[in-house]
Amino acid sequence: MKLIQKPKTLTEEAFEILQDAIINNHLQFNVLYSATELGQMLGGISRTPVREAAQMLEKIGIVKIEKNKGIRIIPTTFTTMIESFQIRLMLEVPLVYRATKVRTEQDIEHLNAIFEEFKVKAASNDITGTLKADRDYHLALLQIVGNQKAIDIISNTRNQVLIAGSATIPHSRNCMQTFDDHLKLHHAFVSGDAQQAANLMKAHIINTATLLINQESEKRENWSDYSTNDYLNWI
């Protein structure tokens, strides 16, 4: 089932701009910003859609609105990061199984084009482009199933990890290694092997989580006390 794309409201546009600004470190953690100040910083967005966008971000744990004070960006904790990967395992694995079962030739052509763009960005060592292509590939794969609520949840959980200022590129792997981690998954999807695609998606998510937690453990206090196996392998 194909999803019909509706025009974005001003609030939805403000939500995306504000979220991207946080992910790309244009805003600082634990600094209070007024809605007016944020609107000016983000290209002249009016206060009302910024405030409404902040309320949406607060619901998914990215910011905290302090009454009569402002909007504060919240750093991602270990618990939030682990829960984000748990949610991805719970949703993405069965969804990729379903997507592989119901995909059409048009779906394969569309995903092949996105996968090729992913390869181009990775081969050129474009870190920002590779991270975006990675996200776009996953979302395009899931959109084949057509469950927008699940897609929104997965997108938000991925962003919570990115908002931590954390990505495995370039610290734990390079752009091409990130692309290569999707090769077998993509081939399983194209060939129609749903169970293999699901298994590879699970392995991919756990591998990314393990690399990221190990990476962050080197600079965050007490993170080395945790094992991703204890938190992810039961799913």
TrEMBL record:
Does the record bear Metal-binding in its keywords?
no
**Residue runs in coiled coils:** none
Where is the GntR C-terminal domain positioned along the sequence? Answer: 83-207
Which SUPFAM superfamilies does the record associate with it?
GntR ligand-binding domain-like, Winged helix' DNA-binding domain
Q: What Pfam families does UniProt report for this protein, alphabetically?
A: FCD (PF07729), GntR (PF00392)
Name a GO molecular-function annotation.
DNA binding
Gene3D superfamilies hit by this protein: GntR ligand-binding domain-like, Winged helix-like DNA-binding domain superfamily/Winged helix DNA-binding domain
Report which superkingdom the organism of origin falls in. Answer: Bacteria
The keyword Transcription regulation belongs to this UniProt entry's keyword annotation = yes
Which InterPro entries does the record cross-reference, listed alphabetically? GntR_C (IPR011711), TF_FadR/GntR_C (IPR008920), Tscrpt_reg_HTH_GntR (IPR000524), WH-like_DNA-bd_sf (IPR036388), WH_DNA-bd_sf (IPR036390)
Its keywords, alphabetically, are: DNA-binding, Transcription, Transcription regulation
- What name does the UniProt record give this protein? FCD domain protein
Cite the source lineage: Bacteria, Pseudomonadati, Pseudomonadota, Gammaproteobacteria, Moraxellales
